Amino acid sequence: MDYADQQIPVFTALNDVFGGLVPSLANIERWNGLAEEFERRYGRKPSYIARAPGRVNLIGEHIDYSLFGVLPAAVEPDILIACGTHGEESCTVVVDNLHPKYDRKIFEPATTSVSKPTISGDAAHTEEWHLDINKKELRWESYVKAGYYGVLERFFPAATTLSSGANQGPVPVDLLVTGAVPAGSGLSSSAAMVVASTLAFLAVNGKLDPSNVDKITKGELVQMSMENEKRVGVNSGGMDQAASVMSDPASALYISFYPELKASPVPLPHGVVFVCANSLVVSDKAVSAKRCYNLRVVETLVAARVLARSLNVPLGAEERVTLREVVGRSVGEDIQGGKVLSADALAEALQSIAKKLDVLRSRDGAAVAAGRSGVTLEEMIEMSGLQRDVFQKVYLSWIEVEATEFELYKRTKHVLLEALRVLQFRQICLDASTAADSAGTGDMGVYQKKLGKLMNESQESCAELFECSCPELDQLTKLARSAGAFGSRLTGAGWGGCTVSIVAEDEVDGFIAKIKEEYPPYKGLEDGALKEAIFATRPGRGACVLKL
Ligand code: GLA
């Protein structure tokens, strides 16, 4: 069974959450402490604790929203949310955070009447939930509200809930949050928050009970959490949510999004560990979205249309096609007819199309003479072949971006070659595992080096073509290589946050010590902060709920 089709695990003992007594002992204090603090603050014990881990992406950056596969793994740092219902009639939510920086928030879902045009041209009025998420400012409770939205929409459609009376509606909820995934670190604290919040609201409303016939699968939880996170203002792909929900201990995950969400384990070669190191540059996707993340989403989508036209790929008049779809269609992939490209065929198509990207460069004489490839908005509209108003509607009406030039060529070159690197990385891991089964784990060096090389190429491409690195990330990855890593790259959205390095298992302590000594922002950090900033990680398990 694919991970996406599995049920969300609901455990009743901490040993089961961590798969054994020893790891559970290491965590018991934190979980008990959270439950006790919940009781102190709310006057009753919590009913559940929802857990969602952060993730590290080993390779495949900024390609999930073009629907290419990625290769992340869950990390140990996670978000925990203790929750329970309280006796009030209304469906008030009270949310507290163990971190003193975040103060208590109280909110209540309201319904609003929305009118939507119908095919006949008349307006139809429907009721929708409204939770007042502030997209202009980053507020911690926005992620909690975002999680709640999906649960309300999926299980308590506003119109039916209103007409069926209060006892059919969502219950009032108390929540207490604690997070060990540093915000803005590229380890996906935001997805972990949204997944944990979604799970908490599902659990407390009885939607994960064994008796509930309408239970959601891991795949549905991923889809819900993706939609939920968009409500905070970032049009991210599905990698973070998928990794947080579907990870399995001991292996990384190959997550593919097209034609549907799927995840399969990828064994990592013996003798290596992955080390996360935080550049300590805080990168907040939601704050910089219109100049960074969301801009990249628009650039890659418009590029997909321009490329499709040049490759004579069939395209709907107002279709917002993705690069993955264009690559598939260009070699006759037919999803409806059940003809999906194999990994080898996809790799071949990527290699061939990556050589045909000149159509995405500016044709403006001055720009060409100055060696610039970016295009202006005007040029981009013309290249798309769409009328201005249609272009606006398809590409700009739903997302806020700010730019004078759009780098269609560079972004696409990164996406296609990064997608190829993911396929190669996965194959090397599978080959290493087969080799280990037949000849033992004695000589894994060649595989480790190959993986490192792909990671280095990925970093270079993120820095030069996708322009999502920053001087500190460049410096940290360089230091990692000279401290003995086989390879090192930024992980997550970039523009700050963490790097991930592949390091020989028996050299990891020396490696970490060297980086601590040599990366200037680490000087003067206390032990606790340093341990959070740089740590070796092994793939951990995905999100779950503990029923107390
Ligand atoms: C963020 C997004 C992901 C992905 C990465 C970049 O983490 O949430 O969906 O796009 O950036 O690979």
Automatic annotation (TrEMBL):
It is an enzyme of class 2 (transferase). Residues 450-520 form the GHMP kinase C-terminal domain. Residues 167-247 form the GHMP kinase N-terminal domain. Pathway: Carbohydrate metabolism; galactose metabolism. This is Galactokinase. GO terms for cellular component: cytosol. Its EC number is 2.7.1.6.
